[in-house]
Amino acid sequence: MQFLRAWLIAIVLITACAPAPTATRLPSHTPAPTDALALYRLALNAANQNDLALLDHPTRYNLTLTYTADPPTLTGSQDVVYFNRQTAPLNEIYFRLFANYPDYGGKITVANVSANGTPVTPSLEAKDTALRVPLAKPLAPNESVDLHLDFGVTIPRVSKSHYADFGVSDTVTSMPSVYPLIPGYAVKGWNIEVPPPYGDLVYADASLYAVTLTAPSAITVIASGTTIDARDNGNGTQTWKIVGAPMRDFDINLTTVLQKASDTVNGITVNSYYEPSDSDGGKNALRFATNALRVFQARFGAYPYTEFDVVETPIGALGIEYPGIIVLARTMYKDPRGADTLEFVTAHETSHQWWYGIVGDDQVNYPWVDESLAQYSEVIYAEDIRNKSAGQIIVRNFFGDAYNRAKAAGRDAAVNQPVAAFTEESYGEIVYGKGPLFYDAIRKKMGDEKFLRWLKTYVERYRYKVAFPEDILKTAEEVCACSLREEYQQWILSPAK
Fold this sequence. Notes:
This protein has helices at about 40, 280-300, 330-335, 340-350, 370-385, 390-410, 425-445, 450-460, 470-480, 485-495, and strands at about 60-70, 75-85, 90-95, 105-115, 120, 125, 130-140, 145-155, 165-170, 175, 185, 190, 205-215, 220-225, 225-230, 235-245, 250-255, 260-265, 270-275, 305-315, 320, 325-330. The chain has about 500 residues and is an alpha+beta fold. The protein has a domain at about 40-255: tricorn interacting facor f3 domain (Immunoglobulin-like), CATH 2.60.40.1730. Residues about 5-35 have low confidence and may be disordered.
């Protein structure tokens, strides 16, 4: 996640031999599927071909994009099918415009908006990060609407390490979720809040993506999903066709610089993209990612996609997660003393493929639901790669120490709060330090066997759904057949505000 700080990452030396990377070839001219869902199944590995049946009328995005390098812009159009799964009619649909997020330096403009073929006049809200699309007729429950938008994105140039993963740097152009994205809808309605920059932005349902991207021929596209076709247009451009499903958002990275090393784990292709001068770090990142996928599939459940990409970028945060992709800070690649930090940031971000990706959550109002569990996933990773004591070092020296600093400074707070309730410093101490101590406490009470069974049960029950804080407690209590209210009160709800 964006906030990850070095003092929350465990430094545990792990020795393992890196398997020799195997080359992968870009698929080309994949035969057209014979039914509507067959297209999206191309994004899923063989063991997860039936996952689409778990989705309840998912939103479908069909995006046609063109990238121009000078000046760096992305133009596009999208057709979206949205189904009302709520119990009440909807008078409008919202889209998030994250390229307009304050201080990002970019800009997105939208035109030619229509609903079921009828032009509508949208309006901007939430500091221009939300687009309200009114509907001429309320969308009744169990009905769908076809939406069309054209848009253009101005991509900022970035000359130094930057906190946000959005912009053109010396090695990569990063465009996470820059298209208009429909947010989650909960009890209070559409989620269009503008969180602080040290929190995540995306709260969305698992959706289906079909993306056509045209870019200069020299560019390599690193995107969420699976590339099913790449054709040279004979005019200095190439067109990529990519499908992704089920995914909560869609990330695109473009590069002419980064090199690639690849490996496979359980039939999944793992790619590590890195700067030419950082070959050792890039190959380490590949090894750490394959190890993490292997551990977390065994502990949490199947990773659904055909591939997993790890990308070195000049972000100011240590790492950020997207469906099928994680990006990691170049500072960890360039510092030979940073291999241990690189390892555990990689493990943390990889675990987000389950916590936020497969099991969704409201990252704006309940950030601990994915972040605290991603932190504790580092403990599970350390135990499986090395030994149990390595995991307890993380619990004691990193989570415990971070939380103790908060208490000593008078910054103790309830974990179960929105990102905006914390300062940047207390957000790390409480959500990343205190939060994972809850999982350590209930693990001790449940015992290892039931705790690990709970993790798999939690994933199975909320696979491609959205989980809320009480869902964690309810599922854990069911598995252990015990009350965990005392631990929940102590670590998640106290001190009360």
